[in-house]
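Input record, target 12 of the design panel.
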């Protein structure tokens, strides 16, 4: 059922309840009762404030999720790098002998850009062979190819 304003009684009551609940209407007498337009304006402002706050919360949640994903990615990358170093030390002790971890990690950090840049397998294997060499210990072509496979995993 509607009354002359085109708005049902339930709608008007709901607007009044929202306005009162939002604290936008002071206690008043019939003489200073707010107009329908005033109530709509107050409800609209309250709704806008809620939307703004919700948008801010959503933005904060997205930012926190992004930060968490970045940190998880770093931990994962660290785990892959550690796995590569461990596999390299275990599989190629002559190439790993007396090498610091950062020296072995360089094999990955300097080869990944080649892999990402779509270099040929030969170019990648040559770079790995060069970086994996340790003094007079130099990997043969087959070893360099196997190490390159480990590097590909660490880069992924």
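The sequence produced for target 12 reads:
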């Amino acid at each position: 059922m509607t009354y002359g304003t085109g708005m049902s009684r339930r709608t008007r009551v709901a607007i009044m309840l929202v306005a009162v609940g939002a604290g936008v209407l002071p206690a008043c007498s019939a003489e200073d009762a707010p107009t329908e337009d005033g109530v709509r304006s107050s409800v609209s402002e309250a709704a806008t404030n809620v939307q703004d706050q919700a948008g801010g919360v959503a933005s904060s949640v997205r930012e926190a999720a992004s930060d968490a994903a970045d940190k998880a990615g770093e931990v994962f990358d660290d785990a892959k790098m550690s796995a590569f170093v461990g596999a390299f030390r275990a599989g190629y002790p002559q190439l790993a002998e007396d090498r610091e971890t950062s020296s072995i990690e360089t094999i990955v950090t300097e080869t990944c850009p080649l892999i990402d840049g779509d270099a040929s397998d030969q170019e990648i294997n040559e770079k790995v062979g060069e970086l994996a060499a340790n003094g007079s210990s130099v990997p043969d072509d087959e070893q360099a190819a196997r190490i390159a496979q480990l590097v590909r995993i660490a880069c992924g």
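Residues 28 and 43 are 17 Å apart (CA to CA).
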